[in-house]
Write a structure and sequence with these properties.
The protein is α/β, with parallel strands linked by helices and 313 residues long. Helices cover 37% and strands 18% of the residues. The protein has helices at 14-24, 44-57, 81-84, 106-116, 131-139, 169-173, 175-182, 193-196, 203-210, 215-235, 245-252, 299-310, and strands spanning 4-10, 30-37, 65-67, 122-126, 147-153, 188-191, 200-201, 240-241, 257-262, 264-266, 277-279, 291-297. The two termini are 23 Å apart.
Length: 313
């Protein structure tokens, strides 16, 4: 299998952190070209800081981290400290990073990297709002045709919404950006809540992380213990869903996931359903498919992969 050469666009977030750790623990399948931070779960000043903390936790201070857009395209920023804590990475105590933040803006890094690398070789992996990606497409439309694909976490169909009754958080934060990305013509694979809510960190699965006996294993266990309180109270679920690691797990083991190639449109007009991913799962509209929209995963296989890879760090 051809190695995935990726840019991770992220707003860490405990589940973002685990997604980054999984990517860095999987060099046979994934080469991380850089990490770009965006405002989302918490403001940009914290997301870029958290991205660097996670790289150092993984023992990879060589990874370049870039700060991007600090607000959505056309709306005030909505954040999620009520889920992730005031730092975005509440749970473990991680030291302030010693590795530098790069001077270049994240959008320019994305553009320059996609232009410099061979056409069809770079995959974008957005784990948060799609602001950086949309701005890059608006500024440099030529890069869309040079990408291999986009694999993102966002949206929902059967699960509907988690920040409003109709919308998933990442898409709701910047629906205008999502509309640009989904209309870009790039091959897109979507990890919606329909999949990620099945990736539940139960007590047994969290004990497996802690049993690794490593700094990474303990930190991941503490992260999930912190943010599972919200999901347990809200959904009555037995643990926290690991949304974003579904993106990096898919790059390594696509066979763990099943979905449909369908049309997905983004609602940007109605305040009632703003940010809804209108997914034509039953193919009733006749609209051209524009995304591989995942619907299920092998949760045991997913956690076996995650635990095995985290043990490497």
């Amino acid at each position: 299998m051809q190695k995935h050469r990726i840019i991770i666009d992220t707003d860490p977030g405990q589940d973002d952190a685990v997604a980054i750790l999984l990517a860095l623990a999987s060099p046979e399948e994934i080469e991380v070209l850089g990490i770009t931070a965006v405002a989302g779960n918490v403001p940009l000043a914290l997301t870029q800081l958290n991205a660097r903390k996670v790289c150092e936790l993984a023992g990879r201070p060589d990874i370049k981290v870039f700060a991007g857009c600090d607000r959505p395209l056309g709306r005030p920023l909505v954040t999620a400290e009520h889920v992730h804590g005031k730092t975005g990475l509440d749970g473990p105590v991680l030291p302030d990073p010693r590795m530098p933040l790069q001077d270049q803006h994240a959008v320019d890094f994305i553009i320059d990297t996609v232009r410099a690398e061979p056409a069809g070789s770079v995959t974008l992996c957005p784990l948060g709002p799609l602001t950086n990606i949309a701005v890059a497409f608006e500024k440099a439309p030529d890069i869309a045709t040079r990408l291999r694909e986009i694999v993102l976490m966002g949206g929902a169909y059967f699960e509907v919404g988690n920040i409003t009754p109709a919308a998933e958080f990442n898409i709701h934060v910047d629906p205008q950006a999502a509309k640009i990305v989904f209309g870009s013509g790039v091959q897109i694979t979507v990890m919606p809540l329909d999949v990620t809510h099945k990736a539940l960190v139960t007590q047994r699965r969290n004990e497996a992380f802690r049993a690794l006996g490593t700094r990474v294993g303990e930190a991941v266990a503490q992260m999930t213990e912190f943010f599972e309180r919200y999901d347990k109270e809200k959904y009555g679920s037995p643990g926290a869903p690991l949304h974003d690691p579904c993106v990096t797990a898919y790059l390594i083991r696509p066979d763990l996931f099943t979905g449909r190639h369908i049309n997905v449109e983004i609602e940007t007009q109605s305040e009632l359903t703003m940010g809804m991913t209108v997914a034509d799962w039953w193919r009733v509209t006749g609209r051209q498919p524009n995304a591989l929209f995942m619907g299920d995963l092998d949760a045991d296989g997913f956690f076996a992969l995650l635990t095995e890879r985290l043990a490497r760090l």
